[in-house]
Structure formats: structure tokens, C-alpha cells
Amino acid sequence: MKLLWLSLVLGSIIRLVLGATVEGFLELPGELTNLDLVHTSIDLQEITTDLDRNPIKRSAFINHEGVFKFNQVPKGSYILSLAHIEYNLVPFKSRVDVDDAGEVSVHLVQGAQKWEETGLEIPHPIRVIPNTKFPERQYIKKRVPGILESGPIATVVNNPLYLAGIFFVIIAVAAPYLLEKFDPEAAKIMKETKAQRQSRSSAAALKAADNTLNFDIGEKIGNSRAAKVGSDESRK
Question: Where is the signal peptide (predicted)?
């Protein structure tokens, strides 16, 4: 009994002393902050069929350079899980195998993958980055988009050309009122100039209409005289 107990203790000590180092590094946009250190969780869970002992489970933290390490990892198979509150990390779950020589091999774990199947091999140390397609996590999803997100109003608001046109129209309409408020004398001069132009254009239009009317009357008189002369000659 004592020999069995001693062998178990020695086996546990050997497992703790002789082990590998599982490490990696996290890369996020910009420099890592203290919040990134707190918001990142890294867990290493042993997968074993040995029911005589509890599986190994450890947690690690990243430093200011984004590096994390699990030291003295015994021989076995493990699941490495990484998560961040603000980012979707890749790989967020991977399989880690440590052999008798302390060599570490890492493989990507897919959603519907069986444990007996090994996925794509990942270089060790493990490089962890945000997902390129969906880098940030979305905790709130809008079911019905607002009027500024879809529809004709959203088309106008989200198009810079439409916004520029609306801006110039507003400026053109509001400019006279603003000028009258901040510079009344200049506004008065502009109104007088505009009135003079309108009167000149009206006078020119009336003159052109009068000339056209006189021309039409003269043409009609000439035509009537020519017709009368022609009728007199035919009578003779």
C-alpha cells in the first residue's frame, strides 16, 4: 500500500517537473492596454480518459507584449481556449499535444470536428489575431434597421454627393437672409441691383414685344395694300 502511494507521489512529481512549455502571443490593433490584459482569458484543459486523477486545467494571462506561457506542461492532449471581450480571436480553440520528448504540436479545432481527427497544424508559438471578417464582437443585434440605415432617406444620408448638393441648396437659400442679418447695407445694395436688373429686363422684354407687334402690324398693312392693288388691276 505504501509502495503504491509512493509511486503515485513520484509520478505526480515527475509530471510536474518534466514537462513542455506551451506559449503564444496575441496581436491586436494598436498597442495593448491594461484593459486588454484583463479582458483576455486563456485556458488550457487536459483531455484524458484516466479516471483515477483529475485532468489538468490551467489559466494564463498575457503580458504587455501580448505573450502568454504555460510552463511544465506534462505529456498529454489539451484544448487551448482563448477569448477576448471585444474581439473574435483566431484561433479561439486549438488542440495541443505534448509527446514523451516534450515536443509541442498544435492543431486547429473546427466546430464539427471529431477528437480523433487533427485539423490544420498551427506553428508554435501560437499567433493569435482578431478574425479578419468579423474582428469585433457584437452583443446587440438590431432586428429592424432605422430610417437612417435603409430606405431612400438612408440612401441620401449615406451618399456624399447628395449631401453636398443639399448643403449647397441650403447655403443658396439661406445666404440672403444671413447677409441681411449680418450686413444690412450690402443686402440693401444687392436688392437694389436685383431690382434694377429686373426693371431693365422687363423694359427690354416690353420693347422687344412692341417691336414684334409693330412688325406684325406693318406686315399685315403691307399685305392688305398689296392685295387691294392686285384686285384693282384685275378689275381694269
Answer: 1-19
